[in-house]
Amino acid sequence: MTTNRFATRLNSFASRPQAEWPDLVGKPSVLQMAARAAKVAGLTDLDLNFPDHVDEKPAEMARKLGDLGLSVNGFAMRYYSNPAFKLGAFTNPDPAVRREAIDLTKAGIDAAREAGTNLMTLWLGQDGFDYAFQTDYAALWQHEIDGIREVAAHDPDCQISLEYKPNEPRSYSLMPDAATTLLAIREIGLPNLGVTLDFAHVLYADEQPAFAAALVARHSKLLGVHLNDGYAKRDDGLMVGAVHTLQTIELLRQIRRDGYDGAIYFDTFPDMTGLDPVHECEVNIATVKRMLRVVERLEKDNRLSTAVDRQDAVASQAIIQEAMLGPDS
Predict the structure, then answer these.
(1) What are the φ/ψ torsions at residue 222 (nearest 5 degrees)?
(2) Is the whole model's pTM more than 0.90, yes or no?
(3) Domain ranges of the chain
(4) Which residues form a coiled coil (predicted)?
(5) Architecture, CATH, for domain 6-277
(6) Longest Cα–Cα distance in the chain
(7) Range in 173-182, 220-229, 256-265, 320-329 the model is least confident about
(8) Rounded to the nearest 5 degrees, what angle is found at the Cα of 227, between the Cα atoms of 294 and 295?
(9) Radius of gyration of the chain from Cα atoms?
(10) What is residue 1's predicted lDDT score, i.e. its pLDDT?
(11) What is the pLDDT, as a whole number, of residue 4?
């Protein structure tokens, strides 16, 4: 697994704006946030939201980010430009709105390619429902499948990664968990589709992150890993390892074994409580590096594979705690 590529959420760097830009009026620009992100030791990449973050030619934007020492890991679609998307993007009851969402996504894919990346992440949070008797579920699912299929076919060389989430903003999302997302990918049947695992989303989908990753590797491919943490009730966006340290280490071990070679992306929310985003991101990077060293030790410890083969939870916990915390004397 590639361990030297770390990407992050650009909007995090709008946190505590007065500390960085004392005379700022309004919100910081994309390039102002990127310049602040470039101060993070060890950060290599950014993801850009489309269309929100793309206010000039994508190639020119990528060049400016390169001048800051950062690469574009990928683009991520956002469906906020039309208020009608609140009732659905690919699943909106109005065919004209569905067409607008699909065409916007195709434009985003083109922009991503112009910026030099071949990764587009789709979080279809607006596609779902809120009430019983609100929708025809078969029709809603078909709209979703048709929309994803069309945008994935638009550029076969661009990897389209589906990021699932149980709910929010809709009460029920059409892509709420790993299994449902994999069913959609299987039904669509295009080779450039895959999955992004967001740690907090996986937790509150009531999934074990490493198991979700194993399912994705078995039935599709893992195209993105968003690390953060939370209390499994909502998308908390806490720092990596703050709550579920063991589960994070197990996920890193699993994706390493499965051959994941993409960036580790930090989808955390320092801006929610005014944390220093530069220091927060540096701590996340340092935490993951420490966790990967634990994974290295575990992979060299034959006792763990023996314990796992026996499903001996007591032995495996003892080995992992020793790898993390050292011997008891």
Answers:
(1) -90, 120
(2) yes
(3) 6-277
(4) none
(5) Alpha-Beta Barrel (3.20)
(6) 68
(7) 320-329
(8) 15
(9) 20
(10) 59
(11) 80
State the CB neighbour count (10 A cutoff) for residue 184.
22
For residue 2, pLDDT over 70 is answered with: no
Tokens representing 174 are 């059409």
For residue 266, list its beta bridge partners: 8, 227
In the beta sheet, which residues pair with residue 173? 128
Paired residues of 224 in beta bridges: 196
Q: For residue 139, count CB atoms less than 10 angstroms from its CB and return exposed for 0-12, middle for 13-18, buried for 19 or more.
A: exposed
Closest by CA to 8, choosing from 212, 269, 255, is 269
DSSP state of 238: B
SS3 per residue for 96-163: HHHHHHHHHHHHHHHHHHHCCCCEEEECCCCCEECCCCCCCHHHHHHHHHHHHHHHHHHCCCCEEEEE
Q: Give yes or no for a contact between 198 and 156, defined as CB atoms under 8 angstroms apart.
A: no
What residue spans of 163-264 are helical by DSSP H?
A: 178-188, 199-204, 209-219, 245-257
At 191, which helix (H) or strand (E)? none
The structure tokens listed for 207 are 């999934």
Burial of 240 by CB count in 10 Å (0-12 exposed, 13-18 middle, 19+ buried)? buried
Pairwise CA distance, residues 327 & 329, whole Å: 5
Amino acid at 97: V
Cβ proximity of 207 and 213 under 8 Å: no
Query: Cα dist. 236→76, 128, 272 in Å?
Result: 19, 21, 9
